[in-house]
């Protein structure tokens, strides 16, 4: 039916007062083919999508804002696992302290940069050569906020108290002589009245609980020594009576038949909560006075971990049977729900009350997010720790989680430990809804917690920027004004977008997701044209489209898959696995890049291997870099071919390929005998990574890099990597610009030409995308309230704080205001087109 007939149908269904403008808009949305006619089948399909999306909108999104976290190496752990990470709030600013299995304490700032280290003191009777090295294993640690100490338990049956009241840290008390090894710690003090007695709980390997009441915490933990001692004050537990005016000790034996794995304290009910891997006493809630009968939960293989929330009256347990169980406070006979899905033992669980969700973490480095009300798994994240090796289970400490939320920290986040690595994940502070509506344009966006951008690119044919987000949405922006033209919600259902590329016409968008799906979109109307056959259900990390519209996809499958979308007429396009890639990469492929002039494709993997493939033979031609026998190299985060050099006969034998790993930019030649043409470390801070690269491809005069601190750098490479470098590290090329572009990591940078001028596109994990001039002037954030005119520099947001070599790192107040605006606009309802597939 044509528009006139459609309008009459709407009037008969909705009512005679329906506005023509609404009917016209509705007709345009249903008529996706732009034929001027709508079939009943089209209308029914549209309404079905509408209903499906409304149902999806009721499902909350996971609180995790990161597609992949910030990962740091605890180099001072000496390859031992991190047992516990604690947050130290005094003196400000917030610091972290990680305690290794071997007794090494590392102090970090809030960005996980190492400030200082400390080793636990050993037994003075074993003093050798004027040193007392600690020779045991640590079992747990806890921060004692009102006395500014960190207590560390060890298998030497003792406690080490580390003073953190100043910027420096030192051990000042050593309490030893416990009859069994303390295995779990918990500390409580009255926040409103810090001078009141505080309680330190210790669960031990024999299933008993120790209670240490500190009676005068404002005056100290123990009685001061009568004479000065070298090193920490040593106190023998049986002699604790000498400190009776400062501390009292009580032991409750045989609470469990197995070692205690967790201990908590609920001050409101005066209840001690403990867990063990015992079938007969998995979790026990008992009164401190022991005057009431304890609550005892029993289930197979017991609890390796648990968490309890008093306001929700909810307990969550996890253990070796791989199940996450939800229990109410007073019902011990059966759980409220049993959440299945983990494929390895659950090491830690945590209740995140602000959004009503649960985090669970298993031994195979899999993090899951669950919704408490619906018991639905909202998200699965396979944390890519560098220590992970195929077929091997990584070593963990007993307490991998540290969950922080305001007021202790400005924004909520989760720290996860795996062997000698730490991962920092940012969390939403409020509950976020699910998908959007197809027709409801009035829904207010969530300003505070916009989903992170995972990838971005520029279409020169349409003069539009496309941004992909971790919530599976795609937005298209007019590069000349910064306004949004189109939005696709739920592009891959609940899977995060991980990568995207354009076809040869630059009018079709190809997107890949964490669940292995690949789709092709019409950028003019947001219509899904094709679904490409997944090779596996593992993550798609890279896409590239050859000149004849042959799409190459790489990722967790460790293979190269090819798809022909040139003449595809069906929605479903099958994968062509003719590339000789099976077994070539031994680890997940993280990046792919093509060079038409040389007829090659480059791929790079998580173990640092870089391989060059010939398009003619579809086989590997050259291994530029291989993992060494001593272990894997750092992961390669990005690849970039310098197309101008590759097409120039005089320059094609020089450094034409750039790779980035662990922050180092490496220039490679893919021809000749020598392939190394220079490398340098780009970020300004140590331990950072460069996640994205770009260049002005017609000339290759500049190289643009974006790192994990949000800093954008523009390098002059006109004369760089043109000669063979014999030294492992060469001098850096001239740095033209260096500026703090975003609050968090830059996931995409791209040099683009608009109206004969060069600009730089940046996209960040902070949820924003921005445009900059090559000279470092800030054009603006896409989605900001005030639009710009790209031909009028007077309309640019010029208040960016630029940094060449000496400027400060902070952004200006104008940029912070624009950033808050963009978090509203990036996911607002304007000009929205939705696809639910």
UniProtKB/TrEMBL annotation:
PROSITE patterns: WD_REPEATS_2, WD_REPEATS_REGION. The keyword Glycoprotein does not apply. This is WD repeat-containing protein 49 isoform X1. The keyword Cell membrane does not apply. Keywords: Repeat, WD repeat. WD repeats lie at residues 339-380, 465-487. Residues 797-837 are annotated as: Disordered.
